[in-house]
């Protein structure tokens, strides 16, 4: 068991397994600043990596309480950083006012507060990562129903976060993780898509970047 499949918003463990087998080695330190049910630290430890998990609302004792924008870690100590953040306000993770899941990516501020918060998280991922090592973000775009607009309001979270990643990291890859989610075939989703004439989204982005301080300093 890696993480908790009943935790709403848990990351599929095979996504993390795919990353760690490619981008880390035995004994490397893997950090997840928004660890949720702990999937990342479980997969990392099962693969013989060291792991540190943080969350505003820790779900178990081996996850430490911290805001992902201010991690209690020194610069350059992690060999890999993975994050699966809230995608706007779909899930209520906790009542903590600092929860990024309370910030609306399609809100009246055009999502500014959400995207500023995520920019700070990505900055912190870069700070704690060792040079020449990799970081990954698992995220999806979002829609909100709006009367009279087919498909509702679209929030292109994947592209926005990739743009932020690029300002600090060398872009390495963008993977489309197909969800093959049987839920999409059922009742309301398919019916709403047919009635509203919009596409059913069935994928998440896996955004991968490499820290290259030396190259950046030369430019
Ligand atoms: C999508 S879930 C992570 C799922 C996790 N990867 C798993 O497999 O269970 C997002 C997490 O971000 C946490 N979170 C939200 N805002 C945060 C913040 N400012 N600092 C740290 N964690 C935060 C939430 O409490 C939630 O556990």
Write the layout of secondary structure elements.
Layout: H1 13-23, E1 29-32, H2 39-46, E2 50-55, E3 63-65, E4 78-83, H3 112-128, E5 129-139, E6 142-146, E7 149-155, H4 157-168, E8 170-178, H5 182-185, H6 187-196, E9 203-210, H7 213-218
Parallel strand pairs: 1-2, 1-4, 2-3, 4-5
Antiparallel strand pairs: 5-9, 6-7, 8-9
Helix pairs in contact: 1-2, 3-4
Question: What's the number of structural domains?
Answer: 1
CATH class call: Alpha Beta
Q: Roughly how many Å is the radius of gyration?
A: 18 Å
The shape is globular
CATH architectural label: 3-Layer(aba) Sandwich
- Please outline the major beta sheet: 7 strands, mixed
Bound molecules: S-adenosylmethionine
Count up the helices. Answer: 7
Description:
The structure is a single chain. By secondary structure, the protein is an alpha/beta fold. It has one domain (13-218): Vaccinia Virus protein VP39 (Rossmann fold). The protein has seven helices and nine strands, in the order αβαβββαβββαβααβα. The strands form two sheets. Strands 3-2-1-4-5-9-8 form a seven-stranded mixed sheet, sandwiched between helices. α3 (112-128) links the parallel β4 (78-83) and β5 (129-139). α1 packs across α2 (39-46) and α3 packs parallel to α4 (157-168). The N and C termini lie far apart (45 Å). Bound molecules: S-adenosylmethionine. S-adenosylmethionine is lined by residues 3, 7, 9-11, 33-37, 39-40, 55-57, 67-69, 84-86, 93-94, 98-101.
């Amino acid at each position: 068991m890696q993480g908790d499949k009943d935790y709403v918003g848990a990351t599929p463990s095979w996504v993390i397994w795919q990353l760690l087998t490619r981008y880390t080695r035995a004994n490397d330190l893997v950090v997840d600043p928004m660890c949720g049910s702990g999937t990342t630290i479980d997969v990392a430890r099962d693969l013989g990596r060291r792991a540190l998990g943080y969350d505003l609302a820790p779900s178990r004792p081996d996850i430490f309480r911290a805001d992902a924008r201010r991690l209690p870690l020194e610069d350059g100590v992690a060999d890999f950083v993975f994050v699966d953040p809230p995608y706007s306000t779909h899930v209520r993770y906790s009542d903590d006012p600092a929860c990024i899941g309370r910030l609306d990516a399609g809100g009246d501020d055009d999502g500014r507060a959400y995207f500023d918060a995520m920019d700070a998280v990505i900055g912190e991922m870069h700070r704690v990562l060792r040079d020449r090592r990799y970081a990954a973000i698992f995220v999806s775009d979002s829609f909100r129903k709006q009367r009279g607009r087919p498909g509702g309001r679209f929030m292109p979270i994947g592209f926005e976060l990739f743009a932020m990643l690029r300002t600090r990291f060398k872009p390495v890859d963008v993977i489309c993780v197909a969800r093959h989610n049987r839920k999409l075939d059922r009742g309301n989703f398919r019916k709403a898509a047919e009635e509203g004439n919009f596409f059913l989204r069935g994928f998440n982005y896996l955004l991968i970047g490499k820290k290259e301080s030396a190259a950046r300093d030369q430019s």
